[in-house]
Inverse folding.
């Protein structure tokens, strides 16, 4: 797990990027994440302005997007995603606080429970067989899962400045160890596979720091 976590942090250093932000932008990013989890949507421009004081909303959004902490609409005026969430339709969904949200990738979907210490239901499909995958969680604990032992697969690649449109598309669920090992055989140098407990632990370690120290 640690090797995969280190590799992900080298490609998409979310916590480090957030930590470098000025305090108002750092807190804005946390508020955006909390908005997704609590209300099923990012903050509106008006809500963002309330948290930014004298900092223009467009300036703040461009900085967050440059650091790949958020994904913006084509005109750059609205937030459409903030890892682990996206307003775009993806195969991975997460039910949290009564809100059904899309997750950027399989790892992101598994990370929502521990990140917000909440009950979640993850629904997705096996990348190879298209078989349904469901994981019910309470915080960082897995309550139930179907099929019995799904795995996570990651095909490593550069992000080109936006992991949501590159790396995230190849972070997937695989229905069992045999399927995972078969998928890895396609490109062993660039594909990692993790069992479910390792994937949950990796997701928690990657995402939970984003909400630490918030006001």
């Amino acid at each position: 797990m640690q090797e995969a976590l280190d590799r992900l942090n080298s490609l998409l250093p979310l916590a480090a990027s957030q930590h470098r932000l000025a305090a108002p932008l750092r807190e804005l990013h946390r508020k955006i994440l909390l908005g997704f989890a609590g209300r099923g949507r990012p903050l509106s421009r008006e809500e963002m302005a309330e948290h930014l004081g004298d900092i223009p909303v467009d300036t703040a959004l461009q900085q967050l997007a440059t650091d790949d902490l958020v994904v913006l609409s084509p005109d750059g005026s609205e937030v459409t995603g903030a890892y682990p969430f996206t307003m775009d339709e993806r195969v991975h969904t997460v039910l949290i606080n009564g809100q059904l949200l899309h997750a950027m990738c399989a790892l992101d979907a598994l990370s929502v429970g521990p990140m917000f210490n909440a009950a979640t239901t993850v629904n997705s499909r096996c990348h190879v067989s298209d078989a349904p995958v469901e994981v019910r969680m309470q915080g960082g604990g897995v309550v139930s899962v179907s099929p019995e032992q799904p795995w996570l697969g990651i095909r490593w690649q550069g992000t080109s400045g936006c992991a949501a449109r590159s790396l995230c598309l190849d972070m997937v669920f695989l229905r069992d160890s045999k399927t995972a090992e078969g998928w890895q055989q396609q490109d062993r140098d660039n594909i990692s596979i993790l069992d479910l407990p390792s994937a949950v632990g990796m997701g928690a370690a990657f995402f939970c720091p984003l909400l630490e120290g918030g006001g």
